[in-house]
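Two quick folds needed for the group meeting slides. Do the first one here.
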Amino acid sequence: MNRRVNKPSAAQLSRTNGGSTKKPSNKKSVNKSQSAWFSSSVSFSSLVSALPFNAWVDHHRFSCVDSLKRLLSTPWQSMMTWLVVAIALVLPALLYLAFDNIRPVSEQWQNDTQISLYIQPKAQLIAIEKLQQRLSELAEVDTVELITPAMAQQEFQQYSGLGNVLASLNNNPLPYVLTVQATASNNTPEQLTALQAQLQNEVLVETAQLDMNWLRRLQEIMHLAQRVVLSLALLLSVGVMLIIGNTIRLAIESRRNEIVVIKMVGGTDGFIKRPFLYTGFWYGIGGALLALPILFIAELWLSSPIQQLAFQYESEYTLSLIDLNVVALMVMLAGVLGWLGAWLSVSRHLKHIEPE
């Protein structure tokens, strides 16, 4: 004879348990962050099937805001990464600032390049003035200035520090000199050398002097400085990518269970990558914003000795601050570097995380 055992109903269980029905708890429950991301993933997965483009935009917006909130929820850890990124960005920025301030000075020196024409000792002043007028009409020449022996003697006494040495002589040994300033479009070393050879052929000119060695050295130094700044910027950019990539790798390992759950419910790799990509982006932006006050303090610290040095050389040179366009470009490049570093890290480590 078979017995039939009736299962208790929900109402009977409710009366037996004091009016409450409890489901058995799962010992392997996920933590709050896992459940939050899991619930958002499920909701966005349902949206993808309904409205693909809108869901894609909404998930980008959600990932962007949520990744920033996660970084701000752990300010000390985020600040350490931001500070390392900021230091890596300040170094090439300072070198660029130094190069940007030196470049106008070097261009001014190049524009001040002159050809000195030493006139024959027996030449008459009238013939020298006619030569000055004729040279000033040349297309390659901007200005021609006449320096008389008396003017040269006065300048020598002012800057040489030897006092009235020349005044004690019976005759002034200094000759007439014509200083020829080339135009801005004819101040390259090749053009100046050709102009020097042309002026050397003048009858009244004894010597046409142009010191090209210092100009060539100056140009080579500027080219070397430009390459050094560019090379250091590239190396430190790679360093920023590696720093952010390593930080993202640690974040991936700490959220391994979440990634496994998302893959189990059908989440794509692109869906999983987006929060980490935006995290890298915010690491780059935060580091660049933190680098700006450091750069500003460095500019203020260097401006005073630079002005003192310029005053010693009787110059009105002042340190120019970094341009706002350069600041905006640095911030955007830092965000791109953070995104690339996160993408490299996620692409490498995500393929090793699969549901068992």
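Then this one, please, same format:
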Amino acid sequence: MALTSVLSVMLRPDKARAYQQCVAKIADRARAKKDPFRWTAHQTVGGEVGMIHFVSEAPDWASIGARDATPELLILRLFGETDGARMLDEMSACTMSARQTTGRDRPDLSYPPDTKELARERAPFAVVTTIRARPGQQDACEELIRKIAEAIPKVDDPAHISTYQALIGDLRAYWTVRPLRALGDLDRHAQPSDLLSRAFGAGEGGLVYRTGLEAMESVERSLVILRPDLSNAG
């Protein structure tokens, strides 16, 4: 079972630059030491700005257990007890809140890019949609996401989505990731309601869309940008 962990950090507006400088040092040290722990950093530029998300992947829980369980342990290992502790204090003073979420891949709810395409290029932007289902309404939420994934190739829409379901964190949460090579890609991507109507007809597509929205307690779409300088992606 493939797993994806996301550490989401809300920065203090006046401390954002200092925090990013610390993370850049960590990423530089990890790359220099060829550290096996890999992550990508993504900054929110549309939606709830002031957020940075650190994303790491693992094939299973045993793999997660074999690596540093917390960012603190990684920093102490890379910089030693004295310098590492000092850096942790600096970073703590820069943050307002942090949240760790781990989810499993849901390929049945996805239409991801081709693996060769993924290996060739990391998308510099992505649209991330976070969904919280109402109690007992997970099936209806999943049906909406599934139908959107099915509709994309039916109408030759250029979009791709990968879907994840939370296992640690909010257990009624899902999130989808739509990679973008450029912001102009959004001009060519159909909105979900139009996509469903074109693929399945106005009647069926509209019903799936309305039922899915009613099953959601909340839904939020964000635009994020990849930060290679804050990443150790290998």
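Slide caption for protein two: The domain at 3-103 is CATH 3.30.70.100 (Alpha-Beta Plaits).
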